[in-house]
Amino acid sequence: MLQLFFFFFFSLLIFTSTTSNASDFCVADLKAPETPSGYQCKSPAKVTADDFVYSGLVSAANTSNIIKAAVTPAFDAQFPGLNGLGISVARLDLAPGGVIPMHTHPAATEVLLVVQGKITTAFISSSNEVYLKTVKRGEIMVYPQGLLHFQINAGGKSAIAFVSFSSPNPGLQITDFAFFGNNLPTKLIAKTTFLDEALIKKLKSVLGGTG
């Protein structure tokens, strides 16, 4: 059943992509510098079938971490055949109690397909409306580009989902790390977020921030 869901999901990605190219493809040359518009194309003479196959999403990732969850990407840097096609995918593994914290993808809309367990998830619109749902096996939810969203395991067993993006490199900014995982001074964070300085320093100590 997992294979059936994934086949449907990947087919959906291909047929809903809005990107078109003059050439058939532009397999990423990972040895060349990345540009704002993506990787340079590998010489067609060096392209093989392996460039269009990626097996990195087959196995579960390690969820023994602070969030009890893991994201395994298949973006252009991991899957060169996606370069220039306007799509990418990733696998989410959430152990019981696992959470993908509040985050955004500045460059892509996201679609989530749950294949095991249940996931409580929401996104917040630019007018601060919350769209909250518990998504079960076989169900899909979409997150518009750039909006804050999260995923939480809503069951007592491990949950698995596959997500697709409307970009080969969707970008990622995790809100917790943006605030507390850098050297922005505590006083400035307190001033702009109305949080207590002691709490900010505690979060910085957990997430690796200073200041």
Order of helices and strands: HEEEEEEEEEEEEHHH
**Percent helix among the residues?**
10-25%
List the uncertain runs: none
Q: Please state roughly what percent of the residues sit in beta strands, choosing from under 5%, 5-15%, 15-25%, 25-35%, 35-45% or over 45%.
A: 25-35%
N-to-C CA distance = 49 Å
List the total number of helices: 4
Supply database-style keywords.
globular, 12 strands, five-stranded antiparallel sheet, alpha+beta, 211 residues
What does this structure look like?
This protein has 211 residues and is of the alpha+beta class. It has helices at 2-16, 175-180, 186-193, 197-207; strands at 34-35, 38-39, 69-74, 88-94, 99-104, 110-116, 118-124, 130-136, 140-143, 148-153, 159-165, 173-174. A hairpin with a 2-residue loop joins β1 (34-35) and β2 (38-39). The model has no long low-confidence stretch (mean pLDDT 90).
Detail the topology: elements first, then pairings.
Elements: H1 2-16, E1 34-35, E2 38-39, E3 69-74, E4 88-94, E5 99-104, E6 110-116, E7 118-124, E8 130-136, E9 140-143, E10 148-153, E11 159-165, E12 173-174, H2 175-180, H3 186-193, H4 197-207
Antiparallel strand pairs: 1-2, 3-4, 4-11, 5-10, 5-12, 6-9, 6-11, 7-8, 7-10
In short:
By secondary structure, the chain is an alpha+beta fold. The chain contains four helices and twelve strands, in the order H-E-E-E-E-E-E-E-E-E-E-E-E-H-H-H.
